[in-house]
Design a protein that fits this description.
Blueprint lengths: L6 E8 L6 H14 L4 E9 L5 H11 L3 E6 L5 H11 L4 E4 L11 H5 L19 H18 L11
Parallel strand pairs: 1-2, 1-4, 2-3
Amino acid sequence: MSTLPESISAVLPAYNEVAVIADTVRRTHAALAASGVASSEVIVVDDGSNDGTGELVRALAAELPATRLLTHPHNLGYGAALRTGFEAARGEAVWLLDSDGQFDPGDLGLLLDLWEPGSLVAGYRAQRRDPWPRRLNHAAFFTLVRALTGPTLRDVNCAY
């Protein structure tokens, strides 16, 4: 295993994820605890949700004190949510994962096996869980990106 970072900030952008956010936050905390990293935090950026996502995360933060909720007053988009989370992150390493259940937080150890200070570790989805139109769109986009940049990334849309 590579050298572990001293601390990790997990950044979870969220928009209308009330159905899955509690499970994702709990599983993220469990993965961080199992990682062997000395210090960690989970930052949820509620990007203007109107389904109670922010309120649920606020309640979770009382139960799990290493949870931080940042909110946008209205939906600013995925990029803005990422920027907000990255700017607030205190960890030596920042771990990005979507809050919709696409990724298993338990895979953190696989990413840490490759981590070195100053590095970028990018995962990929072995099997996409998207509906077929989105998978088709991704395949076309990925073909274009590969033609322009070379075959260095396996899943350019993977937030992991």
